[in-house]
Predict the 3D structure of the following.
Amino acid sequence: MPNALVVGGYASSKPGERTYIAQLDGAANFDRPSLMPRGTDRKSAVVNELQRVNRNSLQGVAPALDALKAQGLLTSYEVNPLSNTVTYNVAEGHTAEAWKAINAINGVGRVLRDREVKLIGVEDVKEGAHVLMTFADTPAPTPGVEWNVDRVNAPKVWAKGYTGQGVTVGVVDTGIDVTHPALKAAYRGTKADGTFDNNYNFFDAVNGKTQAYDDNKHGTHVSGTIAGVATDTHVATGIAPGVKLISSKILSASGSGTMQGVMKGLEWMLAPTDSLGKNPDASKAPDIISNSWGSNNGKDESFRKLLQSFLAAGIEPVFAAGNAGPGKSTVGTPGSNPEVISVAATDKADKVASFSSRGPSPIKDANGSDHKPDIAAPGHEITSSVPGGGYATFSGTSMATPAVSAVVALLLSKYKDLTHEEVVKAITTSAKDIDTPGYDYNAGNGLIDADAALTAADAIVAARPKPPVPA
């Protein structure tokens, strides 16, 4: 089965209630932040601008919402400032009346009923504490690493001194087992004495817990592909072992969640909070967000404004293309959105996996391009960490996505000031062509190559216009 979020059913905060998400009018102006170098000031500038827009949007909307609550049409509502939305609950029997009243409020835009999202089964699951795959008719992997790590040439980049150091990756998934020996050092909340500080490092949109955990396996598995180091029982699974990881849990033990939970998890990545959900701090936002989730509806743009905010903040959004292949136009959302780096999956023979979703995207960018996915990475029979200290082998574009996130981290560990356009150019122009010559809707620009991408980044930086010399 495909490994992606699918929409089905509805979610409510209490029995008998229905939950809705209203987008408020108002557009952020990211001109100034987008011109700033990557870093804390740029992230803070974007968050400040989003908060400004939300304050202005609420001036006329909040009194109307309070009035509807006083009338009993709304049972409660919550403002989500960084997405400029309001989540509100309606008691059974008042839905039609409340819908009409909400849509009549000046300043309220599109209203969506909160939808349930599910993470459906991972293909080809194999588990064991000592799983180590060997493959016939393929090059022998570098000793001490999993085959996919070697296939993207990560060890060659490590040899040049770049392991992802100085880069933080935010994993938006089912959580993370920070006690796993392959991941403990990578978790940003791990203190020198081995204990954990989860403030600003872990967020749980599902159960509201304050201690990092993963009750599904998926989040720990993708985290291991990003940063997993060798342990006493297993070789290294991580492509960027020098990064720091933070985690936003948006999916439950059964792999289900809600639209509002996903939005909260993404907003938290723009401005992480303490464990009580207070004191947001954009300076603690990651440099990359890795997202192995999405729906099969490639036309859905529900998260697009948030994705634009990540780009403006200098945070690279990497998303799975989906597992609805091999048919055409199967790329799902948010992997279909122009703002993201969309990832296809390949197998051990460097062929695009049959399950990997294909383009074109139904959403075109400003230049009219429908090119999604952008890039491919190993995603078939990928062995990585799972909760409890063990390892498992999963397949899906979910498994390919963290590989691309990790390669981007390797580039940023050398060139923290690469722009989004430069990152995309570096990984796409250097990719190994594995399908139809040139760009194709199956593999995108080809199989990602960390070493070639770093060389491409060297050339991009060298070709930048030189600043004028003072007279």
Summary: The mean pLDDT is 91. The chain has two domains: 5-118, 119-461. Residues 426 and 453 are 5 Å apart (CA to CA). Residues 5-118 form a domain with the Alpha-Beta Plaits fold (CATH 3.30.70).
